[in-house]
Specification:
binds manganese (II) ion, globular, Helix Hairpins, mainly alpha, three-stranded antiparallel sheet, 226 residues
Length: 226
């Protein structure tokens, strides 16, 4: 299948002053687009050509893996941002409190891990095999999908994610990224994992099948109860 660059679910100016138009133009239109173009080139004539993105990630290595994983990681990063105030659903909030004690404690641990991650990579909030919340970091293109973990949210700590706006001050970028988290989106991923086992079930949902309608209703329900 031909991989497509996701459309940002907000305008290029929507995240100002925490993330500039210029950063989004470079990060989404250039970096992210390049991973998509590169993967489409690399899979031609291989067994990966007809696979969904997640399957490519689970079965490949080398350049194909790196480009596929970077598409997945960036899709989740960009979809997880918005300017409007939001907060975790009651289910996610309870899970955060049970695991970390409070949202502030989660924030502290998450940002500390992201600030001290050496070199390029990603920091994630995931659900593990015991349905517990966990913070993990991965280097370069690596993604927790290959460890059987289910990602709820992610922050990009590659320099290209923040250098235009924050130069070398990663900690300031992270503080401001935290204000942009779309908790409705993160909460809806938790619901989908709880109900369907896998947030990637949503990948097939561009039609009116029962599954897609069900996924939509879960997301809607989270919005209403959050
Ligand atoms: Mn990036």
């Amino acid at each position: 299948m031909k991989h497509e660059l996701i459309k940002l679910p907000y305008s290029y100016d929507a995240l100002v002053p925490f993330m500039s138009r210029e950063t989004l133009e470079y990060h989404h239109d250039k970096h992210h687009q390049t991973y998509v173009n590169k993967l489409n080139e690399l899979v031609v004539g291989t067994k990966y050509e007809k696979m969904h993105l997640e399957d490519v990630i689970l079965h490949s290595d080398g350049a194909i893996f790196n480009n596929a994983a970077q598409i997945y990681n960036h899709d989740l990063f960009f979809k997880g941002l918005k300017k409007q105030f939001s907060q975790p659903s009651s289910k996610l909030n309870n899970l955060i409190i049970d695991t970390f004690g409070s949202i502030d404690a989660l924030k502290k641990e998450f940002i500390s891990k992201a600030t001290t991650h050496f070199g390029s990579g990603w920091v994630w909030l995931v659900i593990d095999e015991n349905k517990a919340l966990k913070i993990v970091s991965t280097s370069n293109a690596l993604t927790p999908l290959t460890e059987g973990l289910k990602p709820l949210m992610v922050v990009d700590v590659w320099e290209h994610a923040y250098y235009i706006d924050y130069r070398n001050v990663r900690a300031e970028y992270l503080e401001n990224w935290w204000k942009l988290i779309d908790w409705d989106f993160v909460s809806s991923r938790l619901s989908i994992i709880n109900e369907l086992g896998d947030p990637n079930s949503i990948k097939d949902c561009n039609d009116n099948s029962d599954l897609c309608n069900y996924v939509e209703s879960l997301i809607e329900e989270e919005r209403v109860t959050s």
